[in-house]
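Researcher: Please translate sequence to structure tokens.
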Amino acid sequence: MSLLLSTSSSISRKKYDVFLSFRGEDTRKSFTDHLYHALNRSGIVTFRDDPKLEAGEEIAPELFKAIQQSWCSVIIFPRPMPFLVGAWRSLRRLLNKKNDKAHKVFPIFYHVDPSDLRKQKGKVEEAFAKQEERYKEDKDKIQKWRNALTEVANISGWHLNNRHESEFIKDIVKKISAKLCQTYPVVHDELVGISLPLEELYSKINIGEDDVRIIGIYGMGGIGKTTLAKVAYAEMLPHFEGKCFLADIREVSNKHGLVYLQKQLLSQIFPDECFNFFNVHKGNDIISHRLSSKKVLVVLDYVDNIQHLKCLVGRHDWFNLGSRIIVTTRDEHLLRSYRIDDVYKPTTLNLNDALRLFNLKAFDGDTMPKYDFIELSEHVVRYANGLPLALEVLGSFLCNRDIVQWRSTIERLKEDPNKEILNTLRISFDGLEEKEKNIFLDIACFFNGEKKDLVMKVLDGCKFFLDIGIDVLIKKSLIKVSDDNQYLRMHALLQEIGRKIVEKKCVDEPGKRCRLWKERDVHHVLTKKHGKSLNKNYIQIFLFINI
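Model: Translation complete:
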């Protein structure tokens, strides 16, 4: 379930998220201190300006370096306005960084009206009058200060405006966190085809909202669900007080049980604590109690049973406001039945992205294949049909092999799919009930791309309960219905796996298989009289489809 990292350099992350700039003693131990700690508690890495670092009229190198290493600056304008030379030089430097467009500046108007700063009237005018008296011989300096103040007052920021300070700080932190999150897709150009899915996922996660959200990512095996969740998790985790990524829950649950998973969840969020309980009910009580006061980010990867959700995330009120839970699964119905807040379904890669991903793996980081390999690359990409897992596995397998070996591999794929791809995709089939398995195999062998009404008509006598059976296959991402709701479609690799399942029942004798779809096999059975054990319904289906 992965999308490939390329060798292109990514945009390096800044050392700090916020450079917090303030002047005057009035807010140092009150508002500024509270805001600084609120930002850090939310995982927003903040550098706090220190006036002691000012050296006369110059900005200390430490401050200049911190500004350079910050994504944005937050400037607190208190009342009364401090007219320190260093403060104005620092403000000018911040505004110069803003004009580079790589650095954001957000002013906070603390007990001061931004319109007073723009118009420079009242107390602000009185303060400037004193400075003009002090700097009679340098009127240009005063004018530069006036221009800087007007410029910053015109920037969209936050105005206290008689609000409660705690509420005001909470709002600032939430909005900065949301703005930071919006920058994430920019740094993922190195992930082939992931920028748009990541952007769409973030819009559903909506990290800036002060609520609890459970978001599901569903789709067929190998489509990139886990990779998408991993990238989102890695980018967002600085903005949470606790975090947990539980990988491959299906496998871990089967091996170790639900209590083990509950302990893993708690241990990742509270790493310094030891949890001793021996049943899921006690685990539920502890999780709901401990997480209700902590803003957490949780990823549950590869959930395939509703009990996983009941025992690990329970209800929304188990979590503190601002928490986000991401669930990956192949089963859409599982998400819908649990009333997940929103779902996202990744799609297969388009042709250009598929070629780039395959070439990166097959040619050791080079996005352009050698001339002799172009046609063969396109052949493999068509075979993979946009599935990231298949592109990555086959590209890795063919890397550093010669053209003869490439041709041999392509021929072999016509007979035997790659085992790693086969095992990943077959998991979904193995989890089906017997009737759904039969419907899946019928579609794989006879009906891929056929009209839904035709499938219902032909299979009506098989007592497969098609209405619910087809819905199950759709919800488990094994088939899909066309946009006009008329045709049933199955990914080419899923179809190939379905047919291989049938063929392996009896490799050497087609007459002993439960389904025949190749004309030569049907001819062999009918003319050689080896079809005694063959279900005649499937010969009729073959004849019906091919008339």
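Researcher: Any highlights?
Model: Residues 351-416 form one domain.
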